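Sequence in, structure out.
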Amino acid sequence: MKVIPIGIWGGYPKANSATSSFLIEHDGFHCLVDCGSGVLASLQNYIPLEKLDAVVISHYHADHIADIGSLQFSRIINYYLGKPAPPLPIYGHDQDVENFAKLSYKEQTVGVPIQETDVLHIGPFEVSFCETTHPVYCLAMKFTVDGRSVTMTADTEWRDELVEFARDTDLLISEANLYEEHLGKSPGHMAGSEAGRLAKMAGVKNLLLTHLPLHGDPTEILHAASNVYEGPAELAVVGKVYEV
């Protein structure tokens, strides 16, 4: 299984970059996790858009769905150019009825509802979910294939249930949007020390930090995580291939 960061920022992207999103590949199957601002432009550095096989959306904040419309337009344009393709499945929860409905578009994309109790098979992946603590309903997710797993916290404050959900995962991709001085002052997000604590308590093998703040020096967040978690940890690097 290969994991490629497509974007790493929270809220909105820095110039020429994208919000937090990841491409997960195995046996020629390509799954995009979240599709916020700048993601579609960045994604094309790694695969043609028509090679995308599935999309999974954690929640419906703009920094996770802003480019869904552009993705849908790319497919309708290909259709008009005589290159039709089967509808692209976009997995997302249906607790937000209005936004879930927007995942389906002119038979080019089709919304597939997910629940936190689901264990789905998306291509070669077994995918399970866990509710997070965020101002809107949001789902963490775990991708498992051939005995290897990647767990993604999505957007969340500290939540005890995530410890067991991430237990012994090979790669934990954790949000880390807060500096230590902002811990507990911004709802729905974790600081580096909390991401490190989650990695340590869950016994994960590697920690990757994402959904980073646009201000300050994010290496401070990495240092805070590494002060707690003694295993391999780094800030996600756009375009780097992480083999799991």
